[in-house]
Write a structure and sequence with these properties.
Bound molecules: zinc ion
Structural class: alpha/beta
Radius of gyration: 17 Å
Largest sheet: 5 strands, parallel
Length: 236
């Protein structure tokens, strides 16, 4: 059995998108190796969420790599900058926000590629989404395709033709509501996930950052009860 199923590396942040991407990879028959990056993110609560999701969805193993991007900063997630709150949909789609982490998905995919090559895997899953997203350039199909080309040029396994690296982005053309429906259909317990950029010390969501708003709107549009635990002061 194990020789017939293929291994995949799944980037797992602890958010609802990556949890759903992991569930899709499992459904597609991959043995999933979850990779979580502790990059010094302000919302470290998502690391605990990633552990919960990895356990609940039965990964082969989870590795947490520490790579502190606060060494560079340049983002409200990795430097002492305020997280935007209560932005309108127009504001959210009007440009690349301060929560963009410079080159984050390039860095993360590079780490996933390194691990995949060690495992003899040619399949990487990530939960990027180009529809209900925050305008990040490294969540677009053009970026993913470019990285896939790079992966096959940059590795011994690629150059020796042992296989062809693929970056699977099963959510890239789905709305947040569609992602939630897909996840529910695959048995994802979204109560385990964390999306907020600026949680309270106890992990409660702020309810006001872009990520909280996109998540809340997604649950509403999907007609699925929202399991998010918000800080007490937040009025929905
Ligand atoms: Zn929030």
């Amino acid at each position: 059995m194990t020789t017939q199923t293929k291994a995949a590396v799944v980037l797992l942040s602890g958010g609802l998108d990556s949890a759903t991407a992991l569930a899709v990879a499992r459904r597609d028959g991959f043995r999933c190796h979850a990779l979580t990056i502790a990059y010094g993110q302000r919302h470290a609560a998502e690391l605990e969420a990633a552990r919960r999701v990895a356990a609940a969805l039965g990964v082969v193993e989870q590795r947490v790599v520490r790579l502190d991007l606060r060494a560079f900063g340049g983002s409200a997630l990795t430097a002492d900058l305020p997280i935007p709150q209560d932005r309108s949909a127009e504001e959210m789609t009007g440009g690349i926000p301060i929560t963009y982490v410079p080159a984050r998905n390039t860095v993360f995919l590079s780490l996933a590629l390194a691990w995949a090559e060690v495992l003899g895997s040619f399949d990487i899953f990530m939960g990027v989404n180009a529809i209900d997203y925050s305008g990040y350039p490294d969540c677009r199909p053009e970026f993913v395709e470019a990285f896939e080309r790079l992966a096959n040029l940059a590795t011994r396994a690629g150059v020796e033709g042992r296989g062809h690296f693929r970056v699977h982005t099963p959510l890239i053309n789905l709305s947040k509501a569609d992602i939630i429906r897909r996840g529910v259909g695959l048995g994802v317990d979204f109560h385990l996930t964390h999306s907020c950029y600026d949680p309270a010390p106890d992990g409660a969501a702020c309810g006001r950052c872009d990520s909280c708003q996109l998540r809340r709107d997604g649950f509403r549009a999907a007609g699925v009860p929202d399991p998010t635990r918000c800080a007490a002061a937040v009025v929905k």
